[in-house]
Hints:
The chain has about 525 residues and is mainly α. The chain contains 28 helices and no strands.
Amino acid sequence: xxxxxxxxxxxxxxxxxxxxxxxxxxxxxxxxxxxxxxxxxxxxxxxxxxxxxxxxxxxxxxxxxxxxxxxxxxxxxxxxxxxxxxxxxxxxxxxxxxxxxxxxxxxxxxxxxxxxxxxxxxxxxxxxxxxxxxxxxxxxxxxxxxxxxxxxxxxxxxxxxxxxxxxxxxxxxxxxxxxxxxxxxxxxxxxxxxxxxxxxxxxxxxxxxxxxxxxxxxxxxxxxxxxxxxxxxxxxxxxxxxxxxxxxxxxxxxxxxxxxxxxxxxxxxxxxxxxxxxxxxxxxxxxxxxxxxxxxxxxxxxxxxxxxxxxxxxxxxxxxxxxxxxxxxxxxxxxxxxxxxxxxxxxxxxxxxxxxxxxxxxxxxxxxxxxxxxxxxxxxxxxxxxxxxxxxxxxxxxxxxxxxxxxxxxxxxxxxxxxxxxxxxxxxxxxxxxxxxxxxxxxxxxxxxxxxxxxxxxxxxxxxxxxxxxxxxxxxxxxxxxxxxxxxxxxxxxxxxxxxxxxxxxxxxxxxxxxxxxxxxxxxx
Length: 525
């Protein structure tokens, strides 16, 4: 490594020294400087040559590249405009650099904290997008540049998507007071709905360009990574599943791409693909990563997530601890560790991890939601309410309704002795979506607390009709029939749970308990 650094330094010294007289050689040296991430050196060489040969298009192109690499966007654009008007300039190289410039400048602008409220920055963003689109579209009609052109057009969509997300957040903040009063959900606001329509149209456009990329090069990894996110954004579950099943047949896949794909596959709704299907293909995708990359942080995080979804909580905890020994400040590993601890009912340990994350990740609503849930288990209701309210507000600021946190706040109303208000909110949530497992859980808890057996039975019968039933639905059916003391039904659903999850010890314990309730002591033994 030391020898490599010494060699690189020597090369750069020779570049600056300007050994050799021909322009071609010096341009080559400037290109080497750019490839070594030394744009200052390349700029110095280019300016020296332009003194000798003013306006030379090849030298000006090098200067434009150096300025772009230095993030000096305005002077780089000025040079590009001159080159685009120069008939002696290399058209392909100039238009390609112009299209790349637009992508980098758009990403720079949308990353500014004041972007969403600044009309000057928004105008520059739109201008850059128009400039880039014109040049990238030209590229798509050139056989050797078509792949890059379509990819750049899809890439512009990522910056445009960030702009739309910021506008959604801004709209959510502006209607926040009405939302908190319960008069309207953020997602139901007409202004927000229109923005989400724009997001869908944008994603469709990205998919079209990425499909063109794959027609030209099926192994473009950057495009594949973006494509997975686009499919998820479009809720194209069949397309996402097809992508996953195709990827399983490949080898030597990158841990970054596989991690993104597994994460998205695990997010497919239960009604589309069962948990077992999603977990199995997730592990199959992990096998496509070559052995040398299986200590990569991305690979380890993906394995932890799969263990969690597969309810292998002890394995998830062990792997998360191992990763934190390597990267003690990795927030994802710590978050997953806290989840594993929570699922094993190690609430005090989970609380400590979430408290650390809440101090570091002050804008992540998921952290505050899980922190609130953990505090509720420890009967720290005041702090739990504070954390859950924070989660709801953070989600609203992003244009989302954090239904789970809202439901947990209802649970706290029970705990704090306000059953009337809790009852009203539970009934509203359940009636709006009687298939949601969390809503069913709250409804059953309400009716059991009031001793309303008929209402419990009605909820259970409605739940049984849901297709497909998730594992959580089955758990709820078992507990509901246990409350009604209908132990034959308890055993029936316990057997269904064992059939679904024969690898999880808890399901067998549940079945044994159900059989004991029916007096089947010998069979249990």
